[in-house]
Write a structure and sequence with these properties.
heterodimer, A: five-stranded mixed β-sheet, two-stranded parallel ribbon, B: mainly alpha, 2 domains, globular
């Protein structure tokens, strides 16, 4: 199992600089997850990028825990550093009534398509995104298919005509 | 025609920009990619990729399938590199289960993955050269790919959809005489590589069409999340096989090719040099191949041997339970990334403890690399777009998932 001490050191630095941005730190299977309140995700990301060399956003993905859970949605930010080759996961929790989070396209340009995909699949709205349209599904598609309450075969057969 | 307001049209009589749609049936977009190009004469002012034509909802499907059934879906994502997809997925599940994989299975995984990387690069080389005008290259490259597909078929039974790697090991051991066939391929391949270098790399027309085209700087490449040969073509020395080693890659001796040009030619050179390194790794893996188990010692997860099922009651019970009910994976979440032929292939799996995953997300390298296409294409000529698309090496099955 990978050694998580260097990762926890990074989290300590983040905590020392921005104590309000760290709610909880989880450590499992050699990976470290930091739960960040949604108001502070952009400054946390910017600090990770500028001060701690996490210069690449490897992945951004949404998770639906199910309609009965609250907070219902998770957004995972998988950071990677091309300098020290470490990975860290930031996580934002969102409730069903207010699935808004500020975009991180201002920090990494690659977040653009990832956020569009997450919006497309879960209906999570990234405030301030320059071009928040559906990306994989047609623009008139009804619903967000990766939500747990969306049926596997859709509500009705989709037709392009 | 009735509804057209002619005054509005006449107000802009000297419109110099033209919008054209390239694809989705254009042969050199490598699948069903549509590009919306705004042109000023022949120069591209704005390029907007439009994707999703191949979207089949694979990530939704994973949530309705047991863990072992998901392997079959991964084959169909990046269909030029299915073994790489298998590896990323099964390693992520193995990480959740904390399984130890036997040495022989790891060596075979590395060997097959590197053969697959060569096959994937052969498709790239053939189509990339074909797009630029070197038509005969396509046949020479596909001849080499055919040999590798025959090897993969001999090992797994499938050419394009092998599903050879299973959770905890391999589907089955290599057939008799397989090592000899790989050795034969390895002996023949350098000659073919030399032929490719003569036909394409030293071709001045090819050089003129690729040098200085589609430039992306080192900072932009990192900012846009490029990985794999596209990133190394911009001068960033990063290879997950060396920097985040998995499946025993740290014990192999290979170089990571890096070019600093940042253009189509640099990305081309990185991939050509990678072919030599993959060749080297396959040869090393072949030398390490020793008899031993190919499946982890975890009877509740790994299917039992067919002969054991005839003799032992518990093997039969385990087989029935794995097939009928699946196996439970401890709750947790994991992100595992490997260096696929096109870049970082990351798999995020969240488990709730049951036999089916709560969420599976694939970070496809093609998807992310394609998002940087406007940066490379804007300011270039429209004829260079096909060269740039070829140099990114996208597979639309993975972009759209």
């Amino acid at each position: 199992m990978a050694d998580t001490r260097p990762l926890l050191d990074f989290v300590e630095k983040l905590k020392a600089e921005k104590p309000e941005a760290v709610v909880e730190v989880r450590e499992a299977l050699g990976e470290v997850t930091v739960i960040v309140p949604r108001e502070h995700i952009v400054e946390a990301c910017r600090f990770m990028k500028q001060a701690l060399d996490f210069d690449m956003l490897a992945d951004l993905c949404g998770v639906d825990r199910g309609p009965e859970e609250d907070p219902r949605f998770e957004v995972n930010y998988h950071l990677f550093s091309t300098k020290h080759h470490k990975r860290l996961r930031l996580k934002v929790l969102l409730s069903e009534d207010d699935p808004h989070v500020t975009t991180v396209t201002t920090v990494w340009k690659t977040a653009n398509w990832h956020e569009r995909e997450t919006y497309d699949m879960f209906g999570i709205i990234f405030d301030g995104h320059p071009d928040l349209r559906r990306i994989l599904l047609p623009s008139d598609f009804d619903g967000h298919p990766l939500r747990k309450d969306y049926p596997l075969r859709g509500y009705e057969p989709y037709s392009l005509t | 025609m009735k509804n057209v307001d002619f005054r509005e049209v006449l107000d802009q009589p000297l419109e110099s920009h033209m919008t054209i749609s390239m694809g989705p049936q254009h042969p050199s977009t490598h699948g069903v990619l549509r590009l919306e190009l705004v042109l000023d004469g022949e120069m591209i002012v704005k390029a907007t990729p439009d994707i999703g034509y191949l979207h089949t909802g694979m990530e939704k499907l994973f949530e309705y399938k047991k863990y072992q059934q998901g392997i079959v879906i991964t084959d169909r994502m990046d269909y030029l590199n299915p073994l790489g997809n298998n590896l990323a997925y099964v390693m992520a599940v193995e990480k959740l289960l904390q399984l130890e994989i036997p040495e022989r299975a790891q060596v075979i995984r590395v060997m097959m993955c590197e053969l697959q990387r060569i096959a994937s690069h052969m498709v790239w080389l053939g189509t990339h050269a074909l797009d630029i005008g070197a038509m005969s290259m396509f046949f020479y490259a596909f001849r080499q790919r055919e040999k590798i597909l025959n090897l993969i078929e001999a090992a797994s039974g499938g050419r394009m959809t092998p599903s050879y790697f299973r959770i905890g090991g391999l589907m089955m051991d290599l057939p008799a005489g397989f090592e000899h066939r790989v050795k034969q391929f390895l002996d023949e391949f350098p000659e073919a590589l030399e032929q490719f270098e003569n036909l394409v790399s030293k071709n001045t027309l090819f050089q003129a069409r690729t040098q200085g085209i589609g430039y992306i700087s080192r900072e932009d490449a990192i900012d846009w999340g490029l990985t794999g040969p596209c990133l190394r073509g911009s001068g960033v020395d990063l290879d997950l096989r060396r920097d985040n080693p998995y499946s025993g890659y740290e014990t192999y001796d290979f170089e990571v090719p890096v070019e600093t040009g940042g253009d189509v030619w640099a990305r081309f050179r990185v991939r050509m040099r990678e072919l030599y390194e993959s060749h080297k790794i396959v040869r090393q893996a072949l030398e390490r191949l020793k008899p031993g188990p190919i499946k982890a010692d975890a009877p509740k997860v790994v299917l039992p041997d067919r002969n054991d099922m005839r003799k032992h009651m518990d093997a039969l019970i385990h087989h029935f339970l794995i097939i009928a009910e699946g196996f439970n994976v401890p709750p947790g979440e994991v992100y595992h990334a490997i260096e696929a032929s096109k870049g970082e292939l990351g798999v995020y799996i969240k488990s709730n403890g049951g036999p089916k995953p709560e969420r599976v997300h694939f970070r496809g390298p093609s998807f992310v690399n394609l998002s940087a296409l406007p940066v490379m294409a804007e300011g270039e000529m429209v004829a260079d777009v096909v060269a740039i698309i070829g140099s990114i090496d996208i597979v639309l099955g993975e972009v759209d998932r």
